[in-house]
Specification:
Layout lengths: L1 H18 L7 E9 L6 H12 L8 E7 L2 E4 L5 E3 H11 L3 H13 L4 H4 L10 E5 L3 E8 L1
Parallel strand pairs: 1-2
Antiparallel strand pairs: 1-6, 3-4, 3-5
Helix pairs in contact: 1-2
This protein binds zinc ion.
The site of zinc ion (ZN) has 8 residues, from loops.
Length: 144
């Protein structure tokens, strides 16, 4: 569901660019960068992009997804850690598989949920920022 609304906004953005003459057609390839925090189901997103592109100038466009690691930095001690560390910590702290899934699902829908429980693995501070891989962006548009 989440994937479909993301795909919808990507296609809408690209079509707007085409309409305004911002990019020349045809668009051969679009590279989309996805932060791990977004937890996209890649197959669903790609399928949605293809479906939504049908009968539009993007019909023959190839969509490529590039996953980017999410990196956090502690504002207290300067330590940096990644999304994988967060998941590992979660696996250690929450034994219940369903509960863990619910946590991850909540972040999937609302990435800012990460602030609700993530903390610096070194000093325990909850004052941290996301320095990389927070969202999803169109990295490159290739035309012929
Ligand atoms: Zn710290």
């Amino acid at each position: 569901m989440h994937e479909w609304s993301i795909a919808d906004s990507i296609v809408a953005t690209l079509l707007q660019l085409v309409e305004r003459g911002g990019i020349s057609q045809p668009i051969k390839r679009v590279v989309i960068q996805v932060g791990k925090l977004v937890q996209i189901e890649k197959d669903i997103l790609l399928f949605a992009l293809r479906e939504l592109s049908k009968n539009t100038p993007l019909e023959r466009t190839e969509f490529v997804l590039k996953e980017e690691d999410t990196v956090f930095r502690c504002n207290n001690c300067g330590y940096t850690w990644s999304w994988d560390d967060v998941v590992k910590e979660l696996e250690r702290e929450i034994q219940d598989k369903d509960l863990r899934k619910a946590y991850l699902e909540s972040m999937h829908m609302v990435p800012s949920m990460i602030y609700a429980f993530n903390k610096c693995p070194r000093c325990g501070s909850t004052d941290f920022e996301i320095i990389k891989g927070f969202d999803l962006s169109i990295e490159k548009i290739e035309t012929q």
